[in-house]
Amino acid sequence: MGEVSQKIMIPESFQFQVSSYDISDQLKLIWELIKAPLIVPLLTLGVYISLAMSLMLFMERVYMGIVIILVKLFWKKPEKRYKWEPMQDDIESGNLNFPVVLVQIPMFNEKEVYKLSIGAASNLSWPADRLVIQVLDDSTDPAIKQMVELECQRWASKGIDIRYQIRENRTGYKAGALKEGLKRSYVKHCEYVCIFDADFQPEPDFLRRAIPFLVHNPDVALVQARWRFVNADECLLTRMQEMSLDYHFTVEQEVGSATHAFFGFNGTAGVWRIAAINDAGGWKDRTTVEDMDLAVRASLRGWKFVYLGDLHVKSELPSTFQAFRFQQHRWSCGPANLFRKMVMEIVRNKRVKFWKKVYVIYSFFFVRKIIAHMVTFCFYCVVLPLTILVPEVKVPIWGAVYIPSVITILNSVGTPRSIHLLFYWILFENVMSLHRTKATLIGLLEAGRVNEWVVTEKLGNTLQKAADARKANTKAPRKFRFKFTERLNTLELGFAAFLFLCGCYDFVNGKNNYFIYLWLQTVTFFITGIGYVGTIIPSS
């Protein structure tokens, strides 16, 4: 009986033979096989989700724009909406008309700026016997701790009631330090607490302008001032930050204060009613945004907040990309994690109105803290470039161009002087959305770095000394520099390569001319990838 050999018949077009096809042809064939049944539906879904998120952000920005115009034109200023009378000396009672105010200055290895905040707090125009300054030093460097303590002693010798406090450990980070500070026996008679980070420098009249809102309005828990940046013109990185933060203070904080008497406490440059802090459950260290956590809890208890856009406090922006990335991780991860922890508590709350719940959950948290980061990265850095490789998937022109243009224009109202930097700001924000999206997902999922806290590096007046030294042709104080290998950010470089390839493909085969945007975005990713964004000096 002869042998019968069985042979599996494979269509010729599906035979992967090295002799007939090279590797590129094989990859092209695999791509064609999976594109129609898998890639196109998934990418189409991604486009729909991205467009939905873009519309949500668009409507939020338009709503904020309309409200801020109405506020500026028709709303009364805080001094008219709330009872406000200046604090005055009384001949009979002396300084007893003035409430006792505690000023807390938390710091951690703040070698360059500790004198600035301590000096500014000590020069506040407030009766000396009604003011207590508390320096909460969590520094780990003994030399810096000694310098801070000596500075406190220097001001104490001038009659300032200033207390230097340290802890055995950094449990709870900033929240832990503030919480421990309020437990001190000499704080029991204080009615209000004013918080300044180590680089913040309030003007002498700060308390006289803020405290009356708390004294004359027993339902007000917080008075928040606006930040002003002493180093905004240092480099392109600081100018980009100024543009983003100015929108936050000019629009978001103002609208929240005027419409719902609620906004997120910025963690510094604000005055709290101590009774409201205790009523809300005190400081908690369950997230890296202890300030926002306290604000939301206090708001759910019925307390009101007042934002003073014309009360400015000088502060410093991170001037190195590494410091900025760490800060943005904390600012993006923390709110997402807090949203996860508090969303049901907000829903079940019986003390606040329905529309305020909607504002806090949808507008304050969901759109601004989650959607805004994700749509910027997912749509403009992932989905849109991928549609170039899959021409079967179309992105409507209104979603790719018109809506982003309107959102960008509305975002620019906070910093008119930087309008000429608007296009680069868009590109830079797209880069940072990569880190913000990653941090947001970490917060929502409570992944590994959810409670990471890296104190933002501050340089104080080191830069001004350097500028003065250059003018005088003397040796400037040396600013710490990273080695080139330490500057490299592989994630940004990887996306730069991806966007560059998509741009090249669009240049050769595309019809939408997206390659212009993609190549410009590639350059921005590359600059941040090699860590030089903080060294570029902008034109005025």
Textual characterization of the structure:
- 54% of the residues lie in helices and 9% in strands.
- α4 links the parallel β2 (131-137) and β3.
- It has helices spanning 23-73, 78-81, 114-122, 142-156, 173-182, 206-216, 236-260, 274-279, 290-300, 321-348, 354-389, 397-411, 422-445, 462-471, 484-487, 490-509, 515-529; strands at 101-107, 131-137, 162-166, 192-195, 201-202, 220-229, 270-273, 304-315.
- Residues 1-8 and 13-20 have low confidence and may be disordered.
- It contains 17 helices and 8 strands.
- It starts with 22 loop residues before the first helix and ends in an 11-residue tail after the last helix.
- α9 packs parallel to α10 and α10 (321-348) crosses α13.
- The protein has an 8-stranded mixed β-sheet with strand order 3-2-1-4-7-6-8-5, with helices on both faces.
- The protein has 2 domains: 39-82 and 320-472 and 487-539, no CATH class; 84-319, Spore Coat Polysaccharide Biosynthesis Protein SpsA, Chain A, CATH 3.90.550.10.
- It is of the alpha/beta class and 540 residues long.
- It catalyses: GDP-mannose + (glucomannan)n = GDP + (glucomannan)n+1.
- InterPro entries: Glyco_trans_2-like, Nucleotide-diphossugar_trans.
- This is glucomannan 4-beta-mannosyltransferase.
